[in-house]
What does this fold into?
Amino acid sequence: MDPLRVLFISAEAVPFVKVGGLADVAGSLPKALRALQEAPDVRLAVPLYGQINRKGLDLELVADFTIPHDYGPMPTRVYLTQVDDLPVYLMEGPPINPRDPIYSHDARENGAKFTFFSLAALELPRYIDWQPHVLHAHDWHTAPAVYCVASNRKGEDDYYDQLATLLTVHNLPFLGVGAGPSMGAFGLEAASGSPLPDWAEHMPLPLGLLTADHINAVSPGYAAEMLTPEFSSNLHDFLASRKDTLSGILNGLDVERWDPAIDAALHKNFDEDSLNDRTENKLSLQSELSFGANTRIPLLAIISRMDHQKGIDIALQGLKQIADKPWRAVILGTGAPHIEDEARQLSRDFPDKVRVIVDFDRALARRIYAGSDALLIPSRYEPCGLTQMIAMRYGSVPIARATGGLKDTIIDHDADEVEGNGFLFDEATPEALVDAIGRAMDVFHDQRRWRAIQRHGMKRDFSWGKSAGEYYNLYKSLVERKK
Ligand code: ADP
It folds into this structure.
């Protein structure tokens, strides 16, 4: 039998371009799907941004066509490259301006870029003689493709009728505000009289949520939270109407890319049976950060986008409240300038305790996962979160807010000493975080118990295997439903 064919479209994908966890997922899930016993033919499309280094990529021009637009047809060029055995299509055209940032502050610029990319990726299969069974889109950037499929069904062209659509939500509040006029210019009109609230009828993500054959969130916990007023971005009434076609599949981790036993960025490799070697990473990280050598003072870490979502402000205030206690902290992140400034201020206020690196530094992130004792993740919401999984795999114990995917992956030590792999707190407040840090530090001073927590995290299977199987079953059921 022919394999199932899946067109996977994403605004980011490792190893080409990464801003957040979406890139990790788009880089690793297609590979995991192709590694399944009944392997689907998954192919990935991403924009060919100026930030992608073309040198070293073996690019083959495979398609050259136009996309209709109010100002005239938009030329599109598509280059094929391979990542291991995964075919990747890099899409080029005027709205993907090589000088623009990946995500601009200009909503119209983003709207034009991602609507163009979505529609071009959707057209691509016609030019490479490859009819996908499933279009798998991610977040608002590629939701226009889902909406376009639905808008063109039952017309003259049966291409769209043959295509099942899946929209994965990695971050609900990013609705694609301001992209409506750009979608209109590409021929995608706003909905009207739909179950969506009026204000959402011209926004890409709501339109994708309205019309996808199935919606999934990146963790079961977040799928449930999306239906509640607190987390739904005011879409709970509408989402309730889609409850039966909404599910959650936990993200996996690329456990080959994230493996402390072979990670070349580390001072010394280690695994759960050689935690003494891990200590050398702590010492080397301390020296890199100009902290004096001391293995007994806990080294807390944050590795995060500096965004309101991530609750960095909660962590900064919490750390201030316990400034008289023995701890050190390293904060690595970039994002909102006011949060970056607040973090820098904390390092000025506590120069002996706090280091702040405002940068996106993948190698340093790895050394921090391997050398810190605990990772603070005080997110206000967290659709899945990868940092807690990476931290656990590298023996850094997560201290995290019990929300979304964090709750699905972290078992609180005090609730379950046999399997506990971290510490959870409920309220998004500095006080609740401080309480959890206090509980963690009590255990930290008993190294035997601390190591047990580290081992529980390190032993846990975070690989894609199970979740890739769930995606495959979902694809199959969507195709069956079409028949
Ligand atoms: P999100 O996608 O919301 O940003 P995730 O936890 O899903 O959050 O994924 C974040 C990813 O980005 C992780 O791989 C993390 O290590 C990485 N990361 C975040 N900030 C930085 C940074 N400043 N430098 C290096 N890597 C970072």
Notes: The chain is about 35% helix and 20% strand. The longest strand covers residues 74-83. The pocket of adenosine-5'-diphosphate is lined by residues 20-22, 24, 303-305, 332-334, 360-362, 365, 385-387, 390 (CB under 6 Å).
